[in-house]
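Quick one:
INPUT:
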């Protein structure tokens, strides 16, 4: 083999050394391997990084959707009888639905009268009839006048109007049917009858009225609506019977919802004002006329010289709150333009406004305000919300509520209408355990899809990114295997064994609930928190820094981990040692080159 010449020095090959390659040479070789692998990684980063981020983000959102469908039944029945409500996906954000706990059953229809032949003359004598209507701790005395020649329909309508004009959250309705159960399945009266209902959306918000079931006295909510004669025998003539609470859990089945119109209460909001500014209303007395249903009156307040808007708005609030049980007022926060103009735009500053709202309006009741002349500065009618009743067609039957809480299955299923929609969409009541099993399988598949998306591109992400979701499973491996979730294969995907799940939930349901839905360590809330944080921070921020990848216009890659930082220090020391040698000095027996200079 030809000799080599280096700067005038002849070098000849003296033979192969049998010794193991030195650590310095291995480290140098691994350095260049790392450089080439980093270059390949850079190419992968540039060509697939953006698409990988988008795909991972999509998988995280899918996992979040699957987790959001998981719910544990809280209806108070054993797991064999527990129920859950399942919305059609298009019902999301349009309704909220739930199964009522067994101790809180509350029917919408509470009492029915007997049936009357509507056109026949009443058997009641002419005169004034008085009676008390009580709900919870609140009682109202009502009265009607019976005139000579009145028929039964007219009498029933007079009772209906008296009840509906009261301030209690009780609604009366006259129903006519030819056969028992034609209009309401448990209304047995034939002909004209009165049905008395209570919307729990109102009663549960009233501290004077206890909704649901009183566990201490074991009394039913239906018993809390009562009627009693105080003058005459009108109530005994109507023969009112309370409806019975349902027995057992909600029935499995489907409800087709359509023809909806989301309702709202009447509300008037004034313009915003600087509370420290002096009111521009004239000094003296002022009135705001109001009417709601059959009731009308005025909200009277006065303005003193030098009163600020804070004082005036407070006066209106106090006056409205003390005028009628059917209206309320509140001073609320708002924003208004600052008088300081920058030349480009106005700044917004904190202000205050007053809102006047109807309280527990009955069906068809609307609040109307008529401020006196000179009070246009308040702007109460500018931002008014007139209010509407809620309408929903359930299995072909139109129901109207004020507000939009509908009690289905005799109060065992509650549907609150939040947004109007026109399509016919299904709502299902299903067996809770079967639904939970389906949901666990669904979010297990979504987790596996996410993991299978990350792993092939794991080198593009910061260390430990993929294991963020795996950690809750790994931390409690034994318990999750006990309830049917175990890792498998080299990729550590999850397998769900439904037979094991049924055995676990039958043996220790509370332990299964804690593993899945526990506030502190439940798998579902932990994963939801991880998803929320990653999406909030943006998936792209979890990619390795681009400065860690080599390129013609980039400096030497920066270390990505503590291990790489230590290796880089070793490389620097190795090059300092390995490349600082004297070619003129004859190597020892381990060397391959000798000098033949001279």
């Amino acid at each position: 083999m030809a000799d080599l010449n280096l700067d005038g020095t002849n070098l000849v090959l003296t033979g192969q050394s049998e010794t193991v390659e030195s650590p310095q040479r291995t480290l140098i070789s691994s350095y260049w391997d790392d450089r080439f692998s980093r270059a390949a990684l850079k190419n992968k980063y540039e060509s697939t990084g953006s698409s990988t981020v988008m795909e991972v983000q999509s998988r995280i959102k899918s996992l979040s959707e699957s987790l959001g469908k998981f719910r544990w039944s809280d209806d108070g029945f054993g797991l064999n009888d527990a129920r859950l409500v399942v919305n059609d996906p298009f019902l999301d954000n349009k309704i909220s639905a739930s199964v009522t706990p067994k101790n809180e059953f509350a029917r919408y229809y509470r009492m029915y009268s007997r049936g009357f032949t509507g056109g026949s003359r009443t058997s009641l004598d002419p005169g004034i009839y008085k009676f008390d209507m009580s709900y919870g701790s609140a009682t109202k005395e009502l009265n009607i006048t019976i005139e000579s020649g009145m028929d039964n329909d007219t009498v029933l309508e007079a009772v209906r109007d008296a009840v509906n004009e009261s301030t209690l959250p009780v609604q009366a309705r006259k129903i006519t049917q030819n056969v028992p159960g034609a209009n309401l399945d448990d209304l047995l009266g034939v002909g004209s009858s009165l049905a008395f209902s209570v919307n729990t959306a109102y009663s549960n918000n009233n501290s004077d009225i206890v909704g649901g079931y009183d566990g201490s006295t074991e009394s039913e909510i239906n018993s809390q609506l009562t009627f009693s004669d105080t003058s005459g025998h009108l109530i005994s003539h109507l023969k009112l019977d309370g409806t019975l609470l349902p027995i057992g859990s909600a029935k499995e089945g489907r409800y087709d919802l359509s023809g909806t119109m989301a309702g709202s209460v009447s509300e008037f909001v004034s313009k915003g004002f600087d509370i420290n500014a002096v009111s521009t209303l004239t000094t003296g007395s002022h009135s705001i006329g109001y009417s709601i249903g059959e009731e009308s009156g005025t909200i009277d307040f006065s303005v003193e010289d030098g009163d600020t808007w804070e004082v005036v708005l407070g006066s209106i609030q106090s006056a409205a709150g003390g005028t009628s049980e059917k209206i309320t007022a509140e001073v609320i926060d708002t924003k208004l333009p600052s008088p300081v103009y920058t030349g480009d735009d106005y700044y917004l500053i904190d202000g205050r406004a007053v809102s006047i709202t109807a309280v527990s309006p009955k069906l068809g009741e609307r609040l109307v305000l008529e401020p006196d002349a000179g009070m246009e500065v308040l702007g109460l009618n500018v931002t008014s919300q007139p209010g509407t009743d809620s309408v929903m067609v359930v299995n072909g039957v139109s129901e109207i509520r004020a507000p939009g809480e509908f009690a289905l299955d005799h109060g065992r299923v509650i549907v609150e209408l939040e947004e109007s929609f026109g399509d016919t969409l299904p709502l299902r009541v299903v067996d809770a355990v079967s639904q939970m099993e389906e949901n666990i399988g669904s979010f297990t598949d979504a987790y596996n899809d996410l993991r299978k998306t990350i792993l092939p591109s794991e080198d593009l992400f910061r260390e430990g990114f993929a294991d963020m979701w795996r950690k809750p499973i790994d931390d409690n491996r034994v318990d999750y295997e006990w309830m049917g979730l175990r890792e498998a294969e080299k990729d550590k995907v999850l397998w769900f064994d439904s037979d094991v799940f049924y055995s676990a939930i039958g043996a220790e349901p509370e332990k299964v609930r804690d593993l899945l839905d526990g506030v502190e360590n439940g798998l579902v809330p932990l994963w939801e928190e991880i998803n929320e944080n990653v999406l909030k921070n943006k998936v792209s921020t979890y990619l390795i820094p681009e400065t860690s990848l080599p390129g013609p216009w980039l400096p030497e890659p920066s270390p990505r981990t503590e291990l790489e930082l230590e290796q880089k220090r070793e490389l620097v020391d190795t090059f300092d040692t390995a490349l600082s040698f004297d070619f003129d000095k004859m190597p020892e027996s381990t060397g391959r080159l000798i000098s033949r200079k001279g």
